[in-house]
Amino acid sequence: MGSFPGHALPGSFFLLFGLWWSVKYPLKYLSRRMKTNCYSRLFYQRLELIEGLVKVIFSLVGILAEQFDNGFHMPLINGEDHSWMKLKNWQHFTVYLFYGLSGMVDVLTYFPFKVPVGLDRLSLSLAEFFEGFIFYFHVHNRSELDQYIHSVLLVAVFGGAFTIFLEVFMREQVVLEFFRTSLTIIQGTWFWQIAFVLYPPSGIPEWNQQDHNNIMFITICFCWHYAIALILMSISYSLVYCFVKRRRWYNSEMDVGIQKLNSDKDAKAALLAGSEEE
Amino acid sequence: MGSFPGHALPGSFFLLFGLWWSVKYPLKYLSRRMKTNCYSRLFYQRLELIEGLVKVIFSLVGILAEQFDNGFHMPLINGEDHSWMKLKNWQHFTVYLFYGLSGMVDVLTYFPFKVPVGLDRLSLSLAEFFEGFIFYFHVHNRSELDQYIHSVLLVAVFGGAFTIFLEVFMREQVVLEFFRTSLTIIQGTWFWQIAFVLYPPSGIPEWNQQDHNNIMFITICFCWHYAIALILMSISYSLVYCFVKRRRWYNSEMDVGIQKLNSDKDAKAALLAGSEEE
Amino acid sequence: MGSFPGHALPGSFFLLFGLWWSVKYPLKYLSRRMKTNCYSRLFYQRLELIEGLVKVIFSLVGILAEQFDNGFHMPLINGEDHSWMKLKNWQHFTVYLFYGLSGMVDVLTYFPFKVPVGLDRLSLSLAEFFEGFIFYFHVHNRSELDQYIHSVLLVAVFGGAFTIFLEVFMREQVVLEFFRTSLTIIQGTWFWQIAFVLYPPSGIPEWNQQDHNNIMFITICFCWHYAIALILMSISYSLVYCFVKRRRWYNSEMDVGIQKLNSDKDAKAALLAGSEEE
Amino acid sequence: MGSFPGHALPGSFFLLFGLWWSVKYPLKYLSRRMKTNCYSRLFYQRLELIEGLVKVIFSLVGILAEQFDNGFHMPLINGEDHSWMKLKNWQHFTVYLFYGLSGMVDVLTYFPFKVPVGLDRLSLSLAEFFEGFIFYFHVHNRSELDQYIHSVLLVAVFGGAFTIFLEVFMREQVVLEFFRTSLTIIQGTWFWQIAFVLYPPSGIPEWNQQDHNNIMFITICFCWHYAIALILMSISYSLVYCFVKRRRWYNSEMDVGIQKLNSDKDAKAALLAGSEEE
């Protein structure tokens, strides 16, 4: 969909997932590391199931939006002269399709079909790879700025595909999970950036598609998006850190029960010991 | 062989291997994971020996087909003006040759020459690499569509070479084995696609070799082929899952022997316990 | 800053870090390997904290130098015709920004926020990657020599980014640390080389920007820079080796205390045994 | 050295090392695996020392040959017009230099300076990388065939650099050692091929530098070179296998001493048991 909402929609999907992961992975990491009693393996498995379902729903919404763009009937072949029709829509359809398949693998992993661990990561990696593969040949015959702004996206897309492929072999590696989160956030914000640059809403002046300065700015802008993604993740990490710390304190107070008098001192000591452990 | 059967033949070889692996690897994985008594290491070693032999035979068939194409005598140098002859046939010959060598390494691994484990994977990886290497320089001076449809194949070929190279170090990694299977299936179906696009059998209209829309469709089509490969693998996984599950039930019934009366309940319980284990 | 000091400044930063690491990593490696009592984990953690602070300061210096170049006020958008301004300065600003962020992560790792181990390496790797990313699009519309001398730098930059990314998963791998050190030194010396080639100080004749021989020489020159980096590292390794060896001897003499008479023979024996251990 | 011997000399160096490794690594692998008493760690460490010395000597020979080509005095800068001189010779000098440095690291690893294990592999990997780096920019302004035949070499060179870099982390991985050996052999034979194609000795007709068929043949020819390298390695593996097997038999006969009568049966049984072990 060569339009503002056609880029804003996938951008929002990626942004939602990125922001959600920027809460989930720090929570998972910190509750395990700070040995709180609120970490449970089953809880995170259920979260992954829900994530898979949301992925499937987002993909369906994306596919239906593509269809709606064409009046709920999207032909592939023009009956008259046997030429291809709506190829760009079918490209977007394909991208959504692979994310949908990835969501379905997430769901299947939860159910007792003994799907090998790691297949969910592989399918997500493939979805990102095919997104990049299609985008790589997507921008033929367009203006220089259009080509460039899409090719910059490929850095995030193929970087994401590679990172998730590594996760097949290094599951639960917290640095890779954080890295994937940052790449997902920037993909989301960058889709919005593309929407604003290529299809500026009425009222905003259009970008000069041929000006080389615009291309230079786009390069810098991509880096700033990433810096913003990092800052967002730092904020969310700090909030989760405070939440987990407070919760642990609260829990330890509950535990001590009647030994109320000396509890405060103990809890503080435990806290201090905890924060000094490597 | 710039002809329909010249692409259909290798396509069928890859497809046969891909489909066979889509049965073999789930079977191997599930019989080990579900702790059936039908898993035996020796059985799979013998299968690999047979696979090696089949690879050698397929390579010989391919080489002979190339020769037959030239009346059982394929000259390399033209005696008159010292120019090269039949270079395309010799290219195909070379591709088959490396798959043949890979098959021979598979066979040698079985026999007691103490060939290092992993050498069979390395030789298969090299065969895929040289296939890609030759294809990369294969399409010089051809139409845009011809070049493009072959270069898309390279994604599957080099992806396969990389995956199999990883298997040298991570043998028996089930996710890599599944991934290799999917890349082999798509290589097979894509060879058939090339045959239909470039050398349409009589009765089917020819493709416009210059139309950019055809190139865009080819990109999407490759993704759909992969989606089909994934669906084929899911079906075959499900069938194997049912087969292994039923077999285990049957086996456990056999074991209990005269304790027939309470066997059903036990078997069901064992089944449930099995399907709940991580 | 398209000027001599604009390249000499970052060059000095990289060189300082490279030379410092060429002392620090051999010291760390040898004091651990030779089982001296002067190795302490805490000491090296504090060193990393100081390194992080120095990185932040260097980045601030770099950013302020860019500002000073523009009279302490660097506009991004020209108010009159809405065109971009000072894009090259903003590019350099962005590069410094990411190194500053990397320094901040180093500092945070030290404090008790339980930042995951490896995140400091990832952020440094990202800083190098974005440096390369910006440089890759930096040299558009410049002379051939200018483009080439910057693209040669990318080999060191992306090589460094890759090496540091590996360190996320293989922390404390001494070979990787040495390799990173050599790539940092060559980045430093190469920035100085760029400064001398593109902005020769007054008195030195200018380079012919179009002569292909200059480009050929630049390739060789880069290799020689690397050879010099290796020689520098060997010298510093040898010095540290002698220092650690002498210190161990001295320490063992201190330990024996009153058993002065037979201490020399023992210390020598211990030393010999130490140097013979694999 | 744009001449026949200038390519034949490095080709012979690589070929010698490749063939030697094709004996050494199977011997090392089989004597360890077949539990003969002729495997000793020290023996292979000394071999590596000698290899390092030979590398240094080969590099010196190469450097001196470059000098001799210019009458024992190779200027870099032309005093008259400050232009670069003999850049191609200096490029070859640089390649030899890095192999010489790699040899020196091998030698240093043996002596008790506690040089980190893996640094010898890294330095060899860097030598290959810089060889490829220089070759990549070596062939500017030459005929198409010249460029192509050198760029094909880069596949072996960068493949080798990558393989040896992997060996830094997976030392003594026998499959990687065999792979490196094959890449070294093909590099050697390919240098000879370049010598024959570009500088045919008198009596052999010259190659047409522009004919595209020649380029196509070169691609196939490279694959055949690799197939020959594999066959050479198989022969040498088989010979070593027979040698180690016979030696083990002989040794076991020596051991049994006076129990001569029943020794033959035992030795055979031990042999059979040995060849059946996984």
UniProtKB/TrEMBL annotation, chains A, B, C, D:
Membrane topology: Multi-pass membrane protein
Superkingdom classification of source: Eukaryota
Database matches in Pfam families: DUF716 (PF04819)
Record-linked InterPro entries: DUF716, TMEM45
A cellular-component GO term for this protein: membrane
Transmembrane regions: 6-23, 93-113, 148-166, 178-199, 215-244
Subcellular location, record wording: Membrane
Ribonucleoprotein among keywords: no
UniProt keyword annotations, A-Z: Membrane, Transmembrane, Transmembrane helix
Family: Belongs to the TMEM45 family.
Name by which UniProt lists this protein: Transmembrane protein 45B
